[in-house]
From TrEMBL:
This is SDR family NAD(P)-dependent oxidoreductase. PROSITE patterns: ADH_SHORT (PS00061). It comes from Metabacillus endolithicus. Belongs to the short-chain dehydrogenases/reductases (SDR) family. Transmembrane segments: none annotated.
Length: 257
């Protein structure tokens, strides 16, 4: 028996930003792989829609309306998880946003908003869930959704790129500190995928032409193409991998553009 299991049965995953886009796709994909879910975001209606899809699949999903930029909201979500006696095996830090502004025009408010949403929230979610994983003693998986923008200078703006690079480094340091608790921490760096975040940009033909010019596979990614890598990093199939960033990028980063 050499083939390790990709199955997530009897595992529970917390996913931030699970109401739409990548987070929604990962939540449904994890449920397909057998997991139960805890779904976080600020929009109750979207969380309830995902919950319905997952319960129709025979899995459970607990939606918790949470603004992950607020430590008090994170604490309340953790309390709810404890009250429900849920053992968390997997955390996906996916919630994120961007305001595309050239560096000379970035305001303090924009900077703080992007930092708080993309990196501060991911650290404090990891700290809280990491503590639960240490306490239950069965280890766990943390997956941080970074970006190609964390490796390469892009037009996505300085604050966004800085948060995504920070996420890659945070992944390594948490992997370094928490390996002894059997917690594997990895990151995924997507290139362009069509979601509500990128829909407008990807409706611009010139913009897409520029993207495809530096993408060896010559196409934009499809959401299911992120689900496989995420299930891999959440499952026993990746048990000896920690601190890594897996770029899901159609080959974009191979030339170090
Ligand atoms: N799409 C791409 O091509 C691409 C490429 C590289 C990296 N990424 C990264 O992938 C992640 C998901 O992106 P996406 O394209 O799926 O974006 P999206 O469609 O805009 O979805 C973002 C999700 O994050 C949630 N969120 C944002 N701020 C939040 C907050 N303060 N508290 C709780 N939840 C919050 C949103 O829910 P609410 O607004 O309802 O709270 C939503 O569910 C982001 O980290 C993004 O940087 C995306």
């Amino acid at each position: 028996m050499y083939l390790p299991s990709f199955n997530l049965s009897n595992k529970t995953a917390v996913i931030t930003g699970a109401g739409r886009g990548i987070g929604r796709a990962l939540a449904i994909g994890f449920a397909e792989a057998g997991a139960n879910l805890v779904l976080l975001s600020r929009t109750e209606k979207e969380l309830n829609e995902v919950e319905t899809i997952i319960s129709d699949m025979g899995r459970t999903a607990l939606p918790i309306v949470t603004d992950v930029t607020k430590p008090s909201d994170i604490s309340e979500a953790i309390e709810k998880i404890k009250q429900e006696n849920i053992k968390i095996d997997i955390l996906v830090n996916n919630a994120g946003m961007n305001i595309r502004t050239e560096a000379l025009n970035v305001t303090e408010d924009e900077w703080d908003k992007i930092m708080n949403t993309n990196i501060k929230s991911a650290f404090f979610m990891s700290r809280e869930i990491g503590a639960l994983m240490k306490e239950h003693g069965e280890g766990g998986r943390i997956i941080n959704i970074s970006s190609v923008a964390g490796k390469i200078a892009l037009r996505t703006g300085v604050a966004y790129g800085a948060t995504k690079a920070a996420m890659i480094q945070m992944t390594k340091i948490l992997a370094f500190e928490w390996g002894k608790y059997h917690i594997n921490v990895n990151s995924i760096g997507p290139w362009y995928f069509e979601t509500p975040l990128t829909k407008e940009l990807l409706s611009n033909e010139e913009y897409v032409k520029d993207i495809l010019a530096v993408t060896p596979l010559k196409r934009i990614g499809q959401l299911p193409e992120l689900v496989g890598p995420a299930v891999f990093l959440a499952s026993d199939a990746s048990s000896y991998i920690s601190g890594q960033t897996l770029f899901v990028d159609g080959g974009m980063t191979i030339n170090g553009f």
